[in-house]
Amino acid sequence: MRTLSARTVDQLLGPDRLARPAYRSLAAGLRRLIADGRILVDTRLPSERALMSQLGLSRTTVGAAFDVLRAEGFIVTRRGSGSVTALPEDRSGLALSRAGLVPSDVPDDVIDLTYAVLPAAAGLTAAYERALEHLPRHLATSGYHPRGLPELREALAGWYEGRGLPTDPGDIVITGGAHAALSAVLRAVLDPGDRVLLETPTYPNAIVGVRRSSLRPVPFPIDPLGWDPEHLELALRQGGARLAYLVPDFQNPTGRLMSSDERVSTSQVLRRTGSTPVIDETFVELGLDTAPPAPFAASSPEAITLGSSGKAWWGGLRVGWVRAPHALVAPILEARHSLDLGTAVLEQLVLVELLRSGRTLLDDRRAEARRRRDAMVAALRTHVPDWRFAVPPGGLNLWCELPVDRGDALSRVGEAAGVRLARGAQFGTDGGMDRFVRIPYSVPADEADDVGRRLANAWTMALESRSTREPATPLVA
């Protein structure tokens, strides 16, 4: 069972003194941490005596706070285990996170904020035209190319080389997007019932992919402590995860960027615990204020790296890839065959063209994403000033903390106000996170203020809503 020290609880509660009555403030602070996924469900809390000593409170105060949380369903007492965190039945979100994601049509008058993706990059049409010139020589073949086109694997190896990571083209497998790449890796490396460490919050499709592969997620909170090596090692040892899925470059949804030192310390922890790192670099080309450090695999030769053309170039360019240690290429290739037989040849040729001549286009891409981010930041600060968020140095998302836990209600009423939103619970392995909402800055800059107004209307409606209807579970990308 996961355990939490009194010192960690003190860190998570923050430096502010508890308002009186202290037992209610302590209960509220712990309730918020559990509901937000910062203290995970099924975690054994420190003893009342340990908390009393760490927080400078009386035994009566700590005991009264635990009694409040026990009555509300946020902790349960188990013989031999002490006080263990839980979520009340109506807040668990477990059916949601195990059910998968359901696509549906978006009404014409609704702005869809469930996709963190930009329209096609300028110059993409020209890349398709150049690719068509090379297509005829492939038409006499089967067209499957299970490893991927040799010229694309060579271009990607050169791209990694330019980022400081020497790569053999033979260690790359082309897939139909990063999600397909993750599915192939999970099948190749793990057995049903194995455990996978997932950041929380994290990409919803990764959670679904892990569960659909009959694997067990081990959540690791990265907010507010980031990729703290002490807590990461504790989570890996307690959870027994054989694989760790991490998004170090503008993490989805928080936008966090793992520093060079964090990459080294994280790779050392993973090596000590025998957990294979699977690194999702989907957003790596979208550094808006700063370029990412050297790739994670530069300090972790055993790492498996996933990449995709979707965020950098266009979501409709369904080309992804796996860069893996040579010994894992054959198992990944075999597992990939259980999913599909190859990636579309024309799209692979398009990506070759973009990798060879698209650096200027990427500069323009980042400039456009920066304009959209800054406009959305201004709109939210104007229209929903009580929402809190950190401005990320890259990626495409704002991870917004709401002043009260009405995230489910917000997603439920959103379309009535003209916006479709993903639930915060979709980004957590064990539900909760009802005080969070992901807002992608994917709309044009001149539309951001309108989005802010719609969100303000939706928020007013959410605060007034008394509906208990289950919110929708939209497809998230």
From TrEMBL:
<dbReference type="GO" id="GO:0003700">
    <property type="term" value="F:DNA-binding transcription factor activity"/>
</dbReference>
<keyword id="KW-0663">Pyridoxal phosphate</keyword>
<dbReference type="InterPro" id="IPR015424">
    <property type="entry name" value="PyrdxlP-dep_Trfase"/>
</dbReference>
<comment type="similarity">
    <text>In the C-terminal section; belongs to the class-I pyridoxal-phosphate-dependent aminotransferase family.</text>
</comment>
<dbReference type="InterPro" id="IPR000524">
    <property type="entry name" value="Tscrpt_reg_HTH_GntR"/>
</dbReference>
<dbReference type="Pfam" id="PF00155">
    <property type="entry name" value="Aminotran_1_2"/>
</dbReference>
<dbReference type="InterPro" id="IPR015422">
    <property type="entry name" value="PyrdxlP-dep_Trfase_small"/>
</dbReference>
<dbReference type="InterPro" id="IPR036388">
    <property type="entry name" value="WH-like_DNA-bd_sf"/>
</dbReference>
<dbReference type="InterPro" id="IPR051446">
    <property type="entry name" value="HTH_trans_reg/aminotransferase"/>
</dbReference>
<dbReference type="InterPro" id="IPR015421">
    <property type="entry name" value="PyrdxlP-dep_Trfase_major"/>
</dbReference>
<dbReference type="InterPro" id="IPR036390">
    <property type="entry name" value="WH_DNA-bd_sf"/>
</dbReference>
<keyword id="KW-0805">Transcription regulation</keyword>
<dbReference type="InterPro" id="IPR004839">
    <property type="entry name" value="Aminotransferase_I/II_large"/>
</dbReference>
<dbReference type="GO" id="GO:0030170">
    <property type="term" value="F:pyridoxal phosphate binding"/>
</dbReference>
<feature type="domain" description="HTH gntR-type">
    <location>
        <begin position="20"/>
        <end position="88"/>
    </location>
</feature>
<dbReference type="Pfam" id="PF00392">
    <property type="entry name" value="GntR"/>
</dbReference>
<keyword id="KW-0238">DNA-binding</keyword>
<protein>
    <submittedName>
        <fullName>Transcriptional regulator, GntR family with aminotransferase domain</fullName>
    </submittedName>
</protein>
<dbReference type="GO" id="GO:0003677">
    <property type="term" value="F:DNA binding"/>
</dbReference>
<keyword id="KW-0804">Transcription</keyword>
<dbReference type="GO" id="GO:0008483">
    <property type="term" value="F:transaminase activity"/>
</dbReference>
<keyword id="KW-0808">Transferase</keyword>
<keyword id="KW-0032">Aminotransferase</keyword>
